[in-house]
Amino acid sequence: MLTVTDLTKTYKTGDKALAEVSLTVPKGQVVGLIGPSGAGKSTLIRCINRLVEPTSGKIALSGAELTGLGPRALRRERRRIGMIFQEYALVERLTVMENVLSGRLGYVSFWQSFTRRFPSADIERAYRLLDRVGLMEHADKRADALSGGQRQRVGIARALSQEPELLLVDEPTASLDPKTSRQIMRLLIEICAERGLPAIVNIHDVPLAQQFMQRIIGLRAGRVVFDGPPEQLTESVLTTIYGAEDWTAMRKDGEADRVAEAEAVARLAMISA
Prior knowledge:
By secondary structure, the protein is α/β, with parallel strands linked by helices. The protein has a domain at 93-163. Helices cover 42% and strands 21% of the residues. It is built from ten helices and ten strands. Strands 6-7-8-3-9-10 form a six-stranded mixed beta sheet, with helices on both faces. Strands 2-1-4-5 form a four-stranded antiparallel beta sheet. The longest helix has 26 residues, at 247-272. The termini are far apart. The model is unreliable at 268-273 (pLDDT under 50).
């Protein structure tokens, strides 16, 4: 379980990116983090794993306090937090398998990582993960030969290879088409359910968040202004988070995209039959 208490981040300029944010994410729950650009979503995720140092507040994972840890202890604790990035953060010249195994770097010696000689148990785990994300046949391909959706699947497998207790996901569908976006979100939800993994997903696509997230937290100007189930994300609440907008039209556009996708799949099935 992740517990964040009164988390605040103030930059040297005096700008406050987060203001006393508190939340708890229990085992197996997937939380969608929404809000306008500059609301503090990415800052919150990066404060949790201390890629960004919080100014004040506390962060605890499974009871272990993460704030205030020294470099060595922090490296050890970060192994329990899997990070999935918007731009994939893969090493393009390495193979899919090598990228997945890079998730084990915190567990092996320097020379094992330098020579890329991983224990057989790590290799077996990597193959299982590649099979789970549907990329077994691409294990020996270079990462730069993959599509965007395939790269994101590699990123998911790499994060899981850490055997994490928490997933932090930063805009996983921002660079993907609507169909691939839903496939990736469905995969993340299924994996978290299978493993009992809590996850925080920073996501800009509100209809996608409403479709897949179990719980949604809305941030505005660094503060939590909504925390509840997707069905409570009314037009009034969305206006509180984002400001005035024609939310009915937005939902209709999202529904039209889903209908068009379903029709395209049906046509393809008829052609293939």
